[in-house]
Amino acid sequence: MGKAYLCLCVLITAFALSCEAAEKIGIYELQRGDFSVKITNYGATVLSVVLPDRNGKLDDVVLGYGSIDEYKNDTTYFGAIVGRVANRIGGAKFTLNGKLYNLPANDHGNTLHGGTIGFSDVVWTVESYVKNSHLTLTYHSHDGEQGFPGDLSVMVTYMLIDTNKLGIKMQAKSLNKPTPVNLASHTYWNLGGHTSGDILSHTIRLQASRITPVDDKLIPTGEISPVKGTPYDFLERRKIGSKFTELPDGYDINYVLDRTGDGKHFMKVATVHEEKSGRKMELWTNQPGVQFYTSNMLPDTVGKGGFVYKKHAAFCLETQGFPDSVNHPNFPSQILLPGVEYRHVMVYRFTAS
């Protein structure tokens, strides 16, 4: 009896210690020369991206907080991987194979970025880390988590490519049931540096001639509309803020990429340039859409170094499946079947001249 009790205590203690170790939050740096990226396994979140300008001056071009504890109370999704389904699901519900699934309503009666505790709010497991190469993180989402069906195995790899590229590979497998999956990286960029003010003078070109219009709660109507002749047209490079007289709140809309992603082939999404620093960012993906967001809903937020980020302090380019596709049969499906791999790849290329 005594020995059995002792063995049980040892097993319980070992299990508790292993769980604590598995849930330990850390910060991991990837670096090659002057190019460096810091990531935490809390929310698989990008904490910083440091780049040289045309004169070699280094700046952090990503908005964020000064401590991990602040990320735990974050409502902006700074730098996080969001899911199980990124963006919005209208009415916080969907029907799959004849069954209605109700989800947490955390955004004006809708579900945003996976619910009240999405992938941005959990501690991921570190599978592999090499400082000058990559960081791979995994997470197991259980059947019924935030109302979604099926057990889901998720993996995200951040990798440095050559001397000036950052790759993000998001993978998922449903282990037992069909389930919607749409992961996205929600990094806030300011190529002038995170303390440089607004991004209205950044120029951008988006290789997308259509958008999915939304209602007053930012839920897609189901239409797919051309951007020509509207403030949403970025087919030719222009300043982000150049049409704010027509669109005073800024941009928060899904663009339909002109070469539709099929999950295998890359397409160029965008080119963004900040003239003062000379920094340029190019983005490629294999996804069919990209959410262009100009931090319209960013309140005065105390960030890294005590700097206060204001409205339009950054832009986001979130490559993705179309928002609310679970409720729009005419949109590309996000339903992942058991045995089929979800694979979402992004590649950023940074230069300065």
Number of H/I helices: 2
**What portion of residues belong to β-strands?**
35-45%
Low-confidence stretches: 1-21
Outline type:
globular
Helix content percent band: under 10%
Specify Rg, calculated over alpha carbons: 21 Å
Question: For the terminal residues, how far apart are their CA atoms?
Answer: 75 Å
What strand order characterises the main sheet? 10-11-12-13-28-22-21-16-19
The computed structural class is mainly beta
Order of helices and strands: HEEEEHEEEEEEEEEEEEEEEEEEEEEEEE
What's the total count of β strands? 28
Supply the key terms:
mainly beta; 2 helices; Aldose_1-epimerase; globular; 353 residues; EC 5.1.3.3; 5-stranded antiparallel β-sheet; Gal_mutarotase_sf_dom; 9-stranded antiparallel β-sheet; Aldose 1-epimerase; carbohydrate metabolism; 38% strand
Protein described:
- This protein has helices at 2-22, 68-72; strands spanning 27-32, 35-40, 45-52, 58-60, 80-82, 88-89, 93-96, 99-102, 111-112, 125-130, 134-141, 152-161, 165-174, 179-180, 184-186, 203-206, 210-212, 225-226, 238-239, 252-256, 267-273, 279-285, 289-293, 301-302, 308-309, 316-320, 335-336, 341-352.
- The protein has 2 helices and 28 strands.
- It is globular and about 60 Å long.
- By secondary structure, the chain is mainly beta.
- 7% of the residues lie in helices and 38% in strands.
- A hairpin with a 3-residue loop joins strand 10 (125-130) and strand 11 (134-141).
- The strands form 8 sheets. Strands 10-11-12-13-28-22-21-16-19 form a 9-stranded antiparallel β-sheet, with no helix packed on it.
- Mean pLDDT is 93; it is low at 1-21.
- Belongs to the aldose epimerase family.
- Its EC number is 5.1.3.3.
- GO terms for molecular function: aldose 1-epimerase activity; carbohydrate binding.
- The active site is at 186 (proton donor), 318 (proton acceptor).
- Pathway: Carbohydrate metabolism; hexose metabolism.
